[in-house]
UniProtKB/TrEMBL annotation:
Lineage, broadest ranks: Eukaryota, Metazoa, Ecdysozoa, Arthropoda, Hexapoda
Similarity field: Belongs to the ABC transporter superfamily. ABCB family. Multidrug resistance exporter (TC 3.A.1.201) subfamily.
Major subcellular site: mitochondrion
Name of the featured protein: Mitochondrial potassium channel ATP-binding subunit
Location(s), subcellular: Mitochondrion inner membrane
Organism per entry: Acanthoscelides obtectus
Ribosomal protein keyword on record: no
Membrane topology: Multi-pass membrane protein
Amino acid sequence: MWKLIQCSSNVHNTFRHTILQQCRSTRPTYYNNIRKAFFHAPSKTRVSKCAPKIIPIGLSLAGGAFVNVMISRNKVLCEPKTRMAGYRTVSDKNLRFDWAKFWTYLRPHIWYFIAAIAGALVVAVLNIQIPQVMGGLINILAKFTESKDSLQFMNEIKPTAFKLIGMYIAQSVFTFFYITMLSNLGEKIAYCMKTDLFSSILDQDIAFFDKNRTGEIITRLTSDIQDFKSSFKQTVSGGLRAATQILGCSVSLVMISPEMTFVTLLCVPSVIAVGTIFGSLLRVTSRRAQAQNDKTTAVADEAVSNIRTVRAFAMEDQEKELFNAEAEKGMSLSQNLGVGIGLFQAGTNLFINGMVLSTLYMGGYLLSTNKLSAGEVMAYLMASQTIQRSLAQVSLLFGSVIRGVAAGSRIFEYINMQPTMPLKGGKIIPDGLLKGDIMFKNVTFAYPTRRQQEVLKHFNLTVPAGKTIAIVGASGNGKSTVVALLERFYDVKEGSITLDGQDIRTLDPTWLRKRALGLISQEPVLFGTSIIENIRYGKPDATDEEVQKAAVLANADEFITSFPKGYNTMVGERGVTLSGGQKQRIAIARALLKNPSVLLLDEATSALDAESEKIVQAALEKARAGRTVIVIAHRLSTIQNADLIVVLDKGQIVEMGTHESLKKLRGYYWSLTYQQQQHSPAG
Ligand SMILES: Nc1ncnc2c1ncn2[C@@H]1O[C@H](COP(=O)(O)OP(=O)(O)OP(=O)(O)O)[C@@H](O)[C@H]1O
């Protein structure tokens, strides 16, 4: 299957240009159509009005790569397995169950599967034979209804009765065996899928998290995995047993009486046809219901994780209303699904009961004409009842299959997603050689979720190693974006960012974040563990002494050691048991522990009161020594000592200089300082 191409917009522009150039020479007749389609493209992935036919184009890419690209009705597709730097290919129909992927999970545990199948087959064979043995038993009973010779009766019935007991015991043992095997298999597959899913989610671009709500993402990890697992177990165990029993008992039925079997099975094909149509309708409803459940979870997740904001704005009622509305939509979709499944099961029951009645009618008739014995009628009834039970099980499994396939499709959608920015791989500047020279060269950038809004426009900035640069400007002017780009949370649309002369896109992102850069932001996020573990997050292999040294540097050691449990104090969820200033100093210690060459301070003291700000500021002053520092600050009083102050307005640098020179300029910076002096308590 051809894969849909996705790429970041700057890559897309180059790609578009390359396609058009090559198309002009190889497919001149389609050139205009394709050109029109590309230039009307509303987003990077879809081509709105496109060439009427499928047009394959051989495409040579930079670096000697050659791929076949296909412009289909409204999409640009490339060959499966094609890998192009900067592109990600996604399955055209994201929400289809990916059987090939599923096989990669099943394959390593195939022996469990085979063992389970073998066990289930033995059980099924026993289930098929039991009615026949039971029929024999009935025939013996019928024979002795007139005669009162109990000794003879015991002698005749013993072998058949023991055979039956043996079969029942074997049936139990093999049932235990195959269910255990299947359960193990299901757990192993679910474990592998869950870990791959989590890993894929964590590897996604930051833009993915901008687009998708946390609750929706978490649902895939929790209820979708759970649904898939239980559906898999139920379907394989129940389905396998039911299928073999239906097949085996059908053979028995034919052997006992072909005429009766003919009558019984007359209506099966039509039932299968109706079931298939019904099934696809139910699958769609099930997917919708699950998507709606995700939304409901997301609303709850947001409300609960932001409970303080909800409480502070007295928004409990509105949150409840929002949740209720989403839950109601979910309920109505699930109700529709329930009605569908109910209809299906009711129809199946009707069919099954019809089968029993016709069997009795025909059986009675054949018995009266001596074509069948009582035991044979009994065996026939038991076999047809086994089929009946199996069919009932199939109809029950149906709902579970639908839920499982929908859950699996959603899990594979995320597992198959490839981030456009790798997390690892690339150049590393060896320790000791990293200086910390930073340069933004003609950078233009728009967030992936808002492509029309250019947040930085032709932004140029040089930060020499060891210097402190402050970026100031009104809110929403792109200050934090500068930091986000340096951290490579996003890639620039145009231009480049270099560290010691190396484009950061060529550097190993893990090394860049772990070793080169230290970020301290306004809202320090701590994990719900001990203080020492929170600081150690900056360098997992740090010794206790290193942790304490970083805490001393961050002016945090004093307050930490004043706690009864010192560094082992638990901080509570997101650090709720600490004050803002304390949390911030732990975050500083965490960043300093990795000894970064570049320190990024994004409004690190803005959320603090004057007293805490002074302590944190003192910690930051110590931390600055020997590092390149980029400070973003609202309170201009905190950045007066910076070597250079850059004033941003609407994503462009409008002024640059030292505090004194900018004040003399009496421009934007001066007016910002003036406004703050007016509003400060002293002013
Ligand atoms: N993840 C995002 N997705 C889409 N747009 C964003 C995102 N983050 C920020 N923006 C937008 O980018 C613009 C610049 O935001 P940025 O956070 O860089 O401003 P700022 O100058 O740091 O503001 P503040 O001083 O208030 O923190 C704003 O218009 C903002 O709405």
